[in-house]
Amino acid sequence: MTDFNALAVQFTDFYYNTFDTDRSQLTALYRDHSMLSFEGAQIQGTAAIVEKLASLPFARVKHRISTRDAQPSSPSSGGVLVMVTGELQIDDETTTQRYSQVFHLVPEGGSYYVFNDVFRLNYM
Questions:
Q1: Does residue 24 register a pLDDT over 70?
Q2: In Å, how far are 1, 80, 98, 116 from 75, measured between CA atoms?
């Protein structure tokens, strides 16, 4: 059985480091049947998802993870659900924005890809 907590740490560290340095490099993590829900907008497919993420209106971003939880998504598929909460430091803003993100990771050829990705900013 996969150590889903270790997988969650490894995946999110890689994902957010890649997102924060070059969002266009996230292509390998999605497939054509993957779906992103970003602030209520649903986007499907690798190219459309990466285009959305790359076109976000900021030059620099830094994700700071506050919590990270993981669970197996089914006993037979080997998938993993990962829930992340944290803060975003965007460009030169002095205040951070809180966010929540859920990833459904599915195994493929000895690795995992993002089948579902749900992102929301958390407003107080």
A1: yes
A2: 10, 10, 32, 18
- Hunting for tokens 């997102």 — which residue is that? 19
Q: What would the two tokens of residue 50 be?
A: 């990466």
| Residue tagged 């996230």 (tokens) | 26
Q: Please say if the pLDDT value at position 22 is more than 90.
A: yes
Single-letter residue type at 114: V
Q: How many CB atoms lie within 10 A of CB 20?
A: 14
Q: Is the pTM of this model over 0.85?
A: yes
Q: What is the per-residue DSSP string for 52-104?
A: HHHTSS-S-EEEEEEEEEEEES-TTT--EEEEEEEEEEETT-SS-EEEEEEEE
Q: Measure the CA–CA gap between 27 and 51, rounded to whole angstroms.
A: 9
User: How many alpha carbons fall within 13 Å on the CB side of residue 68?
Assistant: 17
